[in-house]
Amino acid sequence: MKAEVSAIIIIVLVFAASSSISAPAYIPRFGDFAILIHDVGPGYFEQLKEITALIDAYSLQNVTYLFVIPNHGGGMPLEDYPAFVAFLGRLKAEGYHVELHGYTHIGDEFDCNSTAAEEKLELGLRALKLLNVTPEYFIAPRYSLSEDALAVLLSRNITVIGEDFVYFPNGTVEPVCNREYTWYLPSPFLDYQLVSARASYAHTRGTFFLSIHPGAVNNDAGMEFLREFLGFLKAHEKRNP
């Protein structure tokens, strides 16, 4: 009886969540879905290995975007971690996309004026040259971004992915469904999050973004969610024409 009540509660909550989903755009360059891995840096080397091994198992490398922090906390510059840089190079060769996630990720660092944004962007671009990468996409730490900083990024032909919208260099803005289900996920909420994620994907006729943070996802419930949901995504590829 208790299990039946729990299942009913989950269904009601999921219906309420799904009914509030807006109509995100279908963005051909991302397709039906994309996996966004935030906070990619040497401090999460082992966690990133665990996450990418699971993504590899489902052959989803080509839809996975690695958002790199070039100097996490101001004390972990990529050039000081050649093994990590080599690992990112291997992922890139396998089809992963290497992109930019701020510079130090300290505070709301891109909620700033144009001059500061230019300086930090240049430092980030210089760091990614270690991987022979010119990023196409940017996520601001904590999604915090001033209008000045946004203008700087767009002027450099970089597409900015926000929490609810994608901002393109040509001036267009598209709504997106960007969800994160694995932020230090407690085991009792695993089933609810799985049902919720599947329902959200089913109701999304546009592009569905799954956001992941290394460390936050690397527990039993988080990795089980990822394992099951990636299998679900793989089975529902090419949903849109």
Question: Explain this structure to me?
Answer:
With 241 residues, this protein is an alpha/beta fold. The protein has a single domain, classed as TIM Barrel, CATH 3.20.20.370. The protein has helices spanning 2-19, 45-57, 82-94, 114-128, 147-155, 190-203, 220-235; strands spanning 33-40, 64-68, 97-100, 137-138, 159-161, 165-167, 173-175, 177-179, 208-212. The longest helix has 18 residues, at 2-19. It is globular. The N and C termini lie far apart (43 Å).
Strand content: 5-15%
Calculate the terminal CA-CA distance, rounded to whole Å: 43 Å
Kindly report the CATH topology.
TIM Barrel
Using only C-alpha atoms, the radius of gyration works out to 18 Å
Largest sheet: 5 strands, parallel
What is the mean predicted local confidence, pLDDT? 91
What is the number of beta strands? 9
Our count of domains comes out at 1
Write the element-wise H/E pattern from the N-terminal end onward: HEHEHEHEHEEEEHEH
By secondary-structure content and strand pairing, the structural class works out as alpha/beta
Query: Judging by the overall fold, what is the CATH architecture?
Result: Alpha-Beta Barrel
Helical content stands at: 40-55%
pLDDT below 50 for ≥5 consecutive residues: which ranges?
1-21
Instruction: Please give the count of helices.
Output: 7
Please list the strands of the largest sheet in the order they lie side by side: 3-2-1-9-8
The CATH homologous superfamily: Glycoside hydrolase/deacetylase
